[in-house]
Amino acid sequence: MINFIIWIVVGAIAGWLAGAVMGSKHGLITNIILGIVGSFVGGFVLTLVPGTQPVEAGFSIGHILTAALGAIIIIAIARFIKRA
Predict the structure, then answer these.
(1) Maximum Cα interatomic distance, the chain, rounded to a whole number of Å
(2) Residue 78: which pLDDT band, with cuts at 50, 70 and 90?
(3) H/E element holding 24?
(4) Domain ranges of the chain
(5) Is the distance from CB of 31 to CB of 15 less than 8 angstroms?
(6) Which residues does 46 contact at the CB level (< 8 Å), separation at least 6?
(7) Which of 73, 61, 64 is nearest to 24 (CA)?
(8) pLDDT by residue (tens digit) across 47-72?
(9) 5-11 long-range contacts, CB within 8 A, separation 24+
(10) C-alpha to C-alpha distances, 66 to 47, 74, 83, nearest whole angstrom
(11) Which of 33, 29, 46, 35 has the alpha carbon at shortest distance from 72?
(12) Residue 58 per-residue DSSP state
């Protein structure tokens, strides 16, 4: 149960950070969802880089940056699809 709460907090912070970086004007709930989905995407992307370890569940700057990277990727893909 505590891991679920940690993922929500990390997702909220990462979603807010990704929204700020990308200039997105989403609400808090959307940012949380983007951050949580982004954490899975960011973790997957990092496993593709040779020599990196998968990110374990927890609360750290690395986890937030990984989730934010994934959320930025999600926002960029959504913008690309929306324009096409």
Answers:
(1) 40
(2) confident
(3) none
(4) 2-83
(5) yes
(6) 52, 54, 55, 66, 69
(7) 73
(8) 777 776 655 655 677 777 878 888 88
(9) 6/57, 6/58, 6/59, 7/36, 7/39, 7/57, 8/32, 8/36, 9/59, 10/35, 10/39, 10/59, 10/63, 10/64, 10/67, 11/35, 11/36, 11/38, 11/39, 11/67
(10) 11, 13, 26
(11) 35
(12) S
pTM: 0.72
Please say whether the beta carbons of 13 and 64 come within 8 A.
yes
How far apart CA 81 and CA 61 sit, in angstroms, is 30
Pull the structure tokens for residue 39.
Answer: 């954490």
Angle at 63 between CA 60 and CA 67, to 5 degrees: 145
